[in-house]
Specification:
This protein has helices at residues 2-18, 25-48, 54-78, 84-104, 110-131, 153-173. The model has no long low-confidence stretch (mean pLDDT 84). The chain has two domains: 1-49; 50-136, no CATH class. It is extended. It contains six helices and no strands. 17% of the residues are buried. Helix content is 75%, strand content 0%. It is mostly helical.
Length: 174
């Protein structure tokens, strides 16, 4: 993460602030990484709050946004009728649904809440997409006509088997 912070600051942020490139990008990157680490150490305790471990905090935080992101990617792959407004609804809805779930139903286990939020994001994206017009945007990066998502029977059977195995693990050990 230090490397990412240094790179992003030196390449993306600094040129926009100063309108020039860094004269010594390595030194600027090192300084920005150290400053970022000092800031991270100083805000760690207030952010962690009542969590016993930082890992719990990270999981809780990512659980607010991950369901919406997964819903957007999944719908983008399997449903050509999802619009940008539908995707935006899933992204914003992920945080809202997660917050409401955490506040209104605090006893629901984390993984179950994330699954419920995922389903709500998918449903809301589909509903908003259905109510808005579908605008096809030609991508300059790839030709959509070259994309083929058809699978063969052995892949489908293997996929179902994997889902059944993972589902049985969940049912037995949860």
């Amino acid at each position: 993460m230090s490397n990412s912070i240094a790179t992003i600051f030196t390449v993306d942020v600094l040129p926009r602030i100063r309108k020039i490139e860094a004269s010594d990008p390595i030194l600027i990157g090192r300084i920005s990484a150290v400053i970022a680490m000092v800031v991270a150490m100083s805000v760690a305790k207030p952010l962690l709050g009542n969590f016993d471990q930082a890992f719990q905090y990270i999981q809780e935080f990512t659980g607010f946004f991950t369901p919406g992101i997964v819903a957007i990617f999944l719908l983008g792959i399997v449903s050509p009728g999802v619009t940008a407004n539908g995707a935006l609804t899933a992204a914003i809805g992920s945080a809202i649904f997660s917050l409401l779930g955490r506040l209104l139903f605090p006893d629901i286990p984390f993984m179950d809440r994330v699954a419920i939020v995922f389903v709500l994001c998918v449903v809301s994206a589909l509903l908003v997409s259905r109510g808005s017009s579908l605008e096809r945007i030609d991508s300059p990066f790839f030709d959509l006509s070259l994309f083929n998502s058809k699978t063969n029977a052995s892949f489908n059977l293997s996929s179902c088997l994997v889902v059944i195995i993972v589902g049985s693990f969940y049912a037995v050990w949860w």
